[in-house]
Amino acid sequence: MRLEYLPPYLPDLDPIEEGISAIKAWIRDNRDYTHMELDGHAGCDPYTMFWRAVYEMVTPEKAEGWFRDSRYL
């Protein structure tokens, strides 16, 4: 048995952090739409709003870039 030390955690190099940042930027950029969906008016669905942000911002190309930036690929 041998002891292996893990590298320190660096959130700047974590691909999920870049993905979450992109989703948050979409929500900020679409503030009016987001407020309407989160206010709970009839016909509004916050889950639809969230998944729209995910599908528009987290594309395979962007995810690959985030993994490359973090040196996982």
UniProtKB/TrEMBL annotation:
One of its GO terms (molecular function) is nucleic acid binding. Gene3D superfamilies: Ribonuclease H-like superfamily/Ribonuclease H (3.30.420.10). It comes from the Eukaryota. This is Tc1-like transposase DDE domain-containing protein. It comes from Gymnopus androsaceus JB14.
